[in-house]
Write a structure and sequence with these properties.
The chain has 21 helices and 43 strands. The longest helix has 23 residues. It has 5 domains: about 200 residues, Jelly Rolls (Sandwich); about 110 residues, OB fold (Dihydrolipoamide Acetyltransferase, E2P); about 130 residues, no CATH class; about 325 residues, Deoxyribonuclease I, Chain A, CATH 3.60.10.10; about 200 residues, no CATH class. About 20% of the residues lie in helices and about 25% in strands. The N and C termini lie far apart (about 80 Å). With about 1050 residues, it is an alpha+beta fold.
């Protein structure tokens, strides 16, 4: 077999001569080989972009692209190994091999695995082929793919790549001897990942080159080489994205601003080079050219330090990785330290958000400072690669959020154009900060808080901040979701604990607490410690399970909820060995025997998926209601055999032991947003590019089916108090959520709340939505942010951690017990609270509390604090003046005017406290009447009511406030009151509103809240100036007339705002 003849010290191979189209091939670079075994073994390799799942040797790359990688995909019928043979003809004895390459993942074979796939690296000093001789493992040169979860199928290996490098030392390869290297595909059971190698580089180390010595009788004088011509770095960089001098040999002279060489204990782990920058006096006046450059010295042997003035000769090259391309010098032939301890060039100040992410190319390789405060928006790769994604404030920030990136559809209605534009804006706010290493799973993980390594007690949470970040602007390992550029720090980073850990669950009040908690594949090994089953998820072995179990139990105990809806519990039944029984056993071991129990639906399993939803509850506070049935939905979108599989919903009516009050909780887990192999772009479930991901159509249908089912009282209890819980896999403005809202369910948690982070963008997938009847019994609702904010390096897993980190990165606290934050709701159940979101009960008439001749109505049940707040005349609520008279939300200018007037007259009137005008002090009563008279005399009110008679005025007020005309009794009452002078037209609207009962209360309160939300959204968008004039008033009035049994959603409000005229 022909081996590669090494006459120099360096060898590179990019595999771009592999076939890139057509039929399978056997053409390989000289000295490279592959060997296949198994029933399907052949003598050719396939050509793939990762879409093929057949076992084979492959030339991987994008379709028809000449940029190739050499790789394999192992299967039960074909095993493959790849490698090369070399002959040392360098003229010296080789004592070490410096090897680097880029590992690329071109296919994810499965997201359900117990151990990761990998390419095992080995070398041999006595082999004559890939399957002969003695082979030595070098684990540090193994390639483990970066993606192990998510959508199965083809991946872009250039974007899912890992740079791997290390040195094999203590060798003795004499001149003329051969050595071999190979990669064997270690296949995790069922994994079938497509893995390849690219940009392979080999350097022979420590060999003394043999040269001819001149004879003693030769009289020679040493030649003094001429001074090299110095090329300025801005000339090398040029104005474009790549250097105009690629492949040219140049000499530069500049200051070392970042030292990332492989010396001391970091051999093979650092970037194997250093960054240099022109002195301030040598920069040009072209803002498009960078003054910085990376020197890939590849262990050349000269140790440099920051502040050294160095002279370097090498070849200009572009190092491509992912979507990045870094201009560098490689094949270095000379490094000379000219002087030491020089002043560093002035760091360039780069402010975020950027005008264009590509603007950073002008600072590639330079020392920069970002003056802005940056927030941690993602730390998914913190444990694996030491990197963190940061983001600045920007135009896409939403009210009540911090500097993190929000999911588009958390705050915006789905839109193809809107989503695309939004992602472009996010790219301007985002930058990666790295750790200056190429090693996977670094120990320690240096990017914790306050310049200290990561640990369970020194975390790095989403929303933590850093200000004045300084480092080298690097251009490597780019991807569409993180951009091309990153900061390589030159000093420890002082991350501040801006987002404090919530050590206790937030107080939501109430006698009862109800929670929803995604327990992230709680599988107990079939109860017998067997974690190797084909359906096994979560923990890989008993040790991991115990760690997971302790954290989950800690979290549930901390929640202290009376009812907990579990998501992603193993669907293995309800027997003694089941996962849910195991969880109950663990909780009761901590909290006391019999404290918790689970709901048994009376079926062997809950649907056909490997995971299910479930309920656990505290037996001393609630029980499953007598005369009720535990209900499940297995039809329509929830048919278990449906390819777009949702988990089967579980509905349970619980009864509070202390009061006998009942409510129904429904636990859900909708289909996720990944493709799951869906490739038909015409399928309505295909990603429409509007921000909702795959399978939105079936999630929307699931919401409709769920609402229809719940309307039938499936548990057999005729009580409208219902709370929908669970992971709905949709953000707050997406179709599945608005479908439930349109069906009468109200989202109990603010829109700015989040429970999950994906691609560095935050939003909520986990919900508590309530019917109108139970909404007024809710005392509070929130998320307990113990998981999404925390790095996954702090979870229970032991893989991708060093032996030390298995211990040092773990504790049994609730933090990072899962990847979703739990939702918790407080309830004070009462059967006497009126419905704020459903119809009925508003057709009767009760005389109002005012005028003074009337007495407070005591026949109607008490309203809760929400209704009292919105149906009160005070400086905090001027909307109660606007809505019944104008039918529209008050505008910012008018609201401010009337608020000041009420404040100056010290007026606060609440019918719920039994207030009557007669009880007001004389000064307040006069002030009250003057305000009402002035408001009713405004030009808008005169225009609306005109010269019409009293009956028209009364019906218009009823229509504006309650969406209906006055009933005959009310019409006659108010008409008579006007005629005899007990009430004026000015007082009429307010008194009708404050005397509302039944569903009129619900409708008017929904209008008031919707009006407040409209004004808040208008002001947060900076669009208050568009809510001026008659045309805008008509549009706003049409909007408010559509509000009835439910509060307007943000998507509805945004549609109205977009219709307002541009001034």
């Amino acid at each position: 077999m022909s081996t590669i003849n090494l006459t120099g010290l360096n060898y590179d191979q990019n595999f771009d001569t592999l076939a890139n189209s057509g039929e399978p091939s056997n053409v390989l670079p000289l000295g490279w080989f592959f060997l296949e075994t198994g029933n399907n073994a052949n003598e050719t390799y396939g050509i793939s972009d990762g879409s093929s799942n057949s076992g084979n040797t492959y030339s991987y790359g994008s379709t028809d692209s000449t940029d190739r990688a050499f790789g394999t995909l192992l299967s039960g019928s074909l095993n493959s190994m790849i490698g090369a043979g070399f002959t040392n003809n360098s003229g010296s004895t080789v004592t070490g091999l410096d090897i680097s390459y880029q590992g690329e993942q071109w296919r994810l074979g499965t997201s359900d695995r117990t151990t990761p796939d990998r390419l095992d690296f080995q070398y041999s000093l006595d082999a004559t082929s890939l399957n002969s001789g003695t082979w030595v493992d070098v684990d540090s040169l193994d390639f483990t793919p970066p993606i192990t979860t998510g959508d199965v199928g083809a991946k872009n290996g250039n974007e899912n790549a890992v740079e791997i490098a290390n040195t094999i030392s203590e060798l003795e390869i004499e001149d003329g001897e051969t050595f071999w290297i190979r990669w064997t595909d270690f296949n995790a059971s069922g994994a079938d990942d497509g893995l390849g190698i690219d940009d392979f580089s080999l350097t022979l180390l420590d060999g003394e080159v043999i040269v001819d010595e001149p004879g003693e009788d030769e009289d020679t004088e040493p030649e003094i080489p001429p001074e090299p011509e110095i090329t300025k770095i801005h000339t090398i960089q040029g104005e474009g994205m790549a250097s105009p001098l690629v492949d040219e040999i140049v000499t530069i002279e500049a200051i070392v601003v970042g030292d990332f060489q492989s010396f001391d204990d970091n051999t093979g782990s650092n970037l194997r080079g250093f960054y240099v920058q022109e002195e301030d006096s040598d920069i040009d006046d072209n803002s498009l050219t960078s003054e910085g450059l990376f020197i890939f010295d590849d262990n050349f042997g000269v140790d440099v330090n920051v502040g050294d003035l160095v002279r370097v000769t090498g070849t200009v090259a572009e190092f491509t990785s992912g979507s990045s391309s870094l201009t560098q010098l490689r094949s270095v032939s000379d490094v000379t330290v000219v002087s030491e301890n020089n002043a560093l060039p002035t760091p360039v100040e780069v402010s975020f958000p950027l005008n264009n992410p590509n603007d950073l190319e002008a600072f590639e390789g330079m020392l920069i400072t970002i003056p802005n405060t940056l927030s941690v928006t993602e730390h998914f790769q913190l444990g694996r690669f030491g990197q963190v994604v940061l983001s600045s404030d920007g135009d896409t920030n939403q009210p009540d959020t911090d500097g993190r990136l929000d999911q588009f559809t958390q705050f915006n209605a789905p839109s193809v154009d809107g989503f695309s534009a939004y992602q472009e804006e996010l790219a301007k706010r985002r930058i990666v900060v790295d750790d200056g290493l190429t090693v996977q799973n670094p120990d320690p993980i240096i990017n914790g808080r306050e310049e200290m390594p990561l640990s369970p007690t020194n975390t790095l949470r989403g929303g933590d901040t850093v200000m004045g970040l300084t480092g080298i602007l690097d251009d490597r390992f780019g991807a569409s979701n993180i951009g091309n550029y990153r900061i390589q720090p030159t000093a420890p980073i002082d991350f501040q604990a801006t987002n404090s850990r919530p050590t206790e669950v937030p107080d939501v009040g109430g006698r009862l607490k109800v929670a929803s908690f995604n327990v992230l594949n709680y599988f107990n090994g079939d109860g017998a410690g067997d974690f190797s089953g084909s359906e096994q998820r979560g923990a890989d072995n008993p040790e991991e399970f115990e760690r997971q179990r302790d954290k989950i139990i800690s979290a549930i105990v901390g929640l202290d909820a009376d009812v907990v809806g579990l998501v992603e519990i193993e669907n293995d039944g309800y027997g003694n060995d089941s996962a849910i029984q195991d969880l109950i056993d663990g909780l009761n071991a901590v909290e006391g025997e019999g404290t918790y129990a689970f709901v048994d639906p009376g079926t062997p399993t809950l649907g056909l998926d490997a995971i299910a939803v479930g309920f656990i509850y505290k037996t001393n506070s609630v029980k499953v209601a007598d005369e009720s049935s535990v209900a499940i939905l297995e039809t329509g979108a929830f048919d278990p055999v449906n390819v777009a599989r949702h988990r089967v919903p579980l509905a349970v009516t619980f009864e509070e032991l202390a009061t006998g009050e009942q409510f129904t909780a429904v636990n859900n887990h909708f289909k996720s947003k990944g493709s799951s192999g869906l490739s038909d772009e015409n399928d309505p479930n295909f990603d429409q590019g509007d921000g909702q991901g795959f399978w939105n159509d079936t999630r929307t249908q699931a919401s409709q089916d769920l609402a229809n089912w719940l309307a039938t009282n499936p548990t057999g209890i005729n009580d409208s108090d219902v709370v929908i819980l669970g992971d709905l896999n949709a953000y707050a403005q997406e179709d599945p959520i608005t479908t439930l809202e349109n069906a009468g369910y109200q989202n109990l948690v603010p829109q700015s709340s989040y429970s999950f982070v994906f691609d560095g963008q935050w939003g909520t997938l986990d919900y508590a939505l309530a019917t109108g009847s139970i909404r007024n019994q809710v005392t509070g609702a929130t998320k307990w942010h113990i998981n999404a904010d925390e790095p996954n390096a702090l979870d229970y897993n032991t893989n991708f951690k060093s032996e030390n980190q298995v211990i040092s990165l773990y504790d049994d606290s609730p933090f990072r017990s899962s990847d979703h934050d739990p939702v918790i709701v407080g309830l004070n159940l009462s059967s006497s609270v009126p419905d704020t979101g459903s119809s009925g009960g508003g057709s009767g008439f009760t005389p109002p509390i005012i005028p003074p001749v009337q007495t407070p109505d005591t026949s109607t049940p008490p309203r809760n604090s929400l209704i009292e707040r919105v149906l009160t005349f005070s400086e905090n609520n001027v909307q109660i003046l606007y809505i019944p008279l104008t039918g529209r939300p008050g505008d910012p200018t008018g609201l401010g005017f009337w608020k000041n007037a009420i404040t100056e007259n010290n007026i606060s009137y609440s019918p719920f406290n039994g207030d009557t005008l007669a009880n007001f002090p004389e000064e307040q009563r006069i002030g009250y009447q003057n305000i009402i008279n002035d408001f009713a005399a405004s030009s808008e009110i005169v225009r609306l009511f005109g010269q019409n008679d009293s009956l028209f005025a009364i019906n218009l007020v009823y229509s504006n406030a309650f969406n209906r005309p006055a009933e005959e009794e009310g019409l006659n009452y108010w008409n008579n009151a006007l005629e005899i002078g007990d009430v004026t037209l000015a007082n009429l609207a307010l008194e009708i509103s404050l005397g509302a009962i039944g569903s009129d209360v619900s409708i008017l309160s929904n209008k008031v809240v919707s009006a407040e939300l409209f004004l808040e959204r208008l002001q947060s968008l900076g669009m208050s100036s568009r809510y001026v004039g008659e045309e805008a008033e008509v549009i706003a009035s049409e909007f408010l007339s559509s509000v009835g049994n439910t509060i307007a959603t943000q998507s509805e409000i945004d549609n109205v705002i977009n219709r307002l005229p541009v001034m």
